Amino acid sequence: MARKPAAKPTVKRAASNPRRPRGTGASYVHEQLKNRILHLELMPGTLLDETEISRQFGVSRSPVREALIRLSAEGLVQNFRNRTAIVAQFDIATLPSYFDAMQMLYRLSCRLAAHNPNPAKLEKLRRDHEEHERALRRRDIRNMVRLNRDFHMTIAEMTGNPYIAGWTSGILDQGQRLLGLYGMHLPDRVSGDFLKSHREILAAIAKKDPDAAEAAGRADAQSLIDEFMNSLANRPGMRVSFK
Questions:
Q1: Is the N or the C terminus of the chain less surrounded, counting Cβ atoms within 10 Å?
Q2: How far from chain centre, in Å, is Cα 30?
Q3: Which residue, 132, 50, 131, 120, is CA-closest to 83?
Q4: Domains and CATH numbers, the chain
Q5: Which residues contact residue 78 at a Cβ distance below 8 angstroms, ignoring those fewer than 6 apart?
């Protein structure tokens, strides 16, 4: 179990945030905190103090508590009994299970989307992919991670199954954090083939070819797994020799 860190200010001041719509306190705090967690502005283990957050967002503690409960249900926050919370940390022991779930959902969502592709969603998928290609050329890792999530979330929505969409959303949230933490060397290694599996997924769905779509989804998941493992293997401490 993760240790509770000593209390300290953690959440950025909300003075620069857009004005909060009236009557949407919990939703607003949830959205803002989730965005900061996914973009690693709030790192794993960061303390989330209800009083401090309520002061910074200009809301009472009730909507803050509700937002933290929602984030906990999404696996992004860990709540303690004394109403203290931290940004959820990664448990290395669960990574094999996470990778299995990610590959299964990629395969399943791609297969189901290819059975009856929605034209509007398919067009959005094309736009997301084109933007991803531009981000790749710029070596823009932050937008590449975000666009990978958007791409697969659109596919999950194309299945027409809200349960698959919900499960995929949770898997992608954790994946966005993992890639953000361990993908810092990614821009040095990517090539024009990096998005090959995305192009194959898009083509297979457009052709209504479930088998090809599933195969491309499997390949895409495997490429992310391989990239993550390579990122770990290339960390400086892994290359130090003590001979």
A1: C
A2: 15
A3: 50
A4: 23-87 (1.10.10.10), 92-234 (1.20.120.530)
A5: 2, 72, 85, 86, 87, 88, 89
Report yes or no: 218 and 105 within 8 Å, Cβ to Cβ: no
Cα distance between residue 105 and residue 93, in whole Å = 20
CB proximity list for 142: less than 8 A, separation 6 or greater: 39, 180
Q: Considering the chain, what is the average pLDDT of its residues?
A: 82
Task: Return the DSSP state at 94.
Answer: G
Indicate yes or no: pTM above 0.85. no
Over the stretch 167-211, which tens digit does the pLDDT of each residue have? 999 999 888 887 776 655 555 555 557 789 999 999 999 999 999
Strand positions, DSSP E, the chain: 47-48, 77-79, 85-87
Helices (H) and strands (E) in the chain, counts: 10, 3
User: What is d(CA 99, CA 175) in angstroms, rounded to the nearest whole number?
Assistant: 9
Range 92-116 average pLDDT: 92
CB atoms within 10 A of CB 162: 10
What does the pLDDT average to over 10-33?
65
Contact status, residue 125 vs residue 86, Cβ threshold 8 Å: no
* Segment 107-134, tens digit of pLDDT: 999 999 999 899 999 999 999 999 999 9
Residue 122: what are its φ and ψ, rounded to 5°? -65, -40
Using an 8 Å Cβ cutoff, are 53 and 39 in contact?
no
